[in-house]
Design goal:
mainly alpha; 0% strand
Length: 312
């Protein structure tokens, strides 16, 4: 390096650094105007209600919001000793344990079927996805009629006489079946997109090596779908824990036979809008938020560890 280059190199470095800093500041200033509306709405409809709910959970506020007295953690102590709350949480957890594995496997099988069908492919994909577009009330009322012991088609077609919606042994199972039919389309679409992104040359190379269809699925398809499977499971866990619409609609806005279908969200609304105990309902909501946040953070932690292991 010549003497002139040695002298002016630090100056060029400082100039480049200053220019980069200026570009970042200008980009933040311009980008901030685009992000501001979202941040405003997010603060107004998410952050503020969350903070307000935490505050109400520390009071004995009623539905009118007047005369709320600060009572500290009394609502949380009561909630942890409330058997109805634990029953509702158990119902939501039981629903989740039934739905998540079934919907994951079913969505994968439907995606494999739609991916390999060569004729009227668009029709199969449409049929699998359309139920997801229905409003929850429409899907719930439809299956309420199908499960009706007197006029429904389920018992008539299969020649059975099962009291689906009036027996606690079958009520939650009926909601699970309705949920699978109604929501599998979203996970099906995720799997189908992931299948279409797998390079075709991997299957061609496997065929040349003598791998049959089962070996190709086990050693190529499933490993390539590992990330999307984790995403589907995480999304379904979060959605299933918050089950509310279909359970309420199918049970005519009640808790079901012997309260067997009362979910956590439903119990929270009952406490807030039926018993008028807004403070206690807010405490239950905060507890539920902590559970949901824990599940989401656990998913992020597992994904990060898996990514780190893959890059080693």
């Amino acid at each position: 390096m010549t003497t002139a280059e040695t002298v002016f190199a630090p100056a060029r470095t400082r100039t480049a650094t200053a220019a980069a800093t200026l570009r970042r500041k200008q980009g933040f200033q311009h980008g901030g105007w685009f992000v501001a509306p979202f941040l405003l709405l997010f603060t107004l409809f998410v952050i503020w209600p969350l903070l307000r709910g935490v505050y109400l959970s520390l009071t004995d506020a009623n539905i009118t919001g007047a005369g709320a007295n600060f009572i500290g953690l009394d609502n949380y102590r009561e909630a942890l000793k409330d058997p109805l709350m634990w029953d509702a949480l158990g119902h939501s957890a039981y629903f989740t344990l039934l739905v998540v594995p079934c919907i994951t496997v079913l969505a994968f099988l439907l995606a494999m079927l739609a991916h390999h069908i060569e004729r009227v492919t668009w029709l199969w994909r449409l049929c699998f996805f359309v139920p997801f577009l229905l409003p929850s009330t429409v899907a719930g009322n439809l299956w309420q009629w199908l499960f009706n012991p007197g006029t429904g088609m389920i018992n008539y077609v299969f020649g059975i006489d099962t009291p689906w919606l009036t027996d606690k042994s079958y009520a939650m199972l009926a909601i699970v079946i309705e949920t699978l039919w109604w929501t599998v389309g979203f996970s099906f679409l995720l799997y189908l997109a992931a299948l279409q992104s797998i390079p075709a040359h991997l299957y061609e190379a496997a065929k040349l090596d003598g791998a049959n269809a089962w070996h190709r699925m086990v050693h190529i398809t499933l490993p390539m779908l590992r990330n999307i499977t984790g995403l589907v499971i995480a999304l379904q866990i979060l959605a299933s824990l918050q089950v509310f619409d279909q359970a309420v609609v199918m049970m005519d806005f009640g808790p079901g036979p012997e309260s067997s279908t009362r979910t956590f969200v439903q119990y929270t609304l009952e406490e807030g809008f039926t018993s008028y105990r807004v403070g206690y309902a807010s405490a239950i909501s905060v507890i539920f938020f902590v559970i949901i946040a824990t599940v989401a953070l656990a998913r992020m932690w597992l994904l990060r560890n898996r990514t780190e292991e893959a890059t080693r």
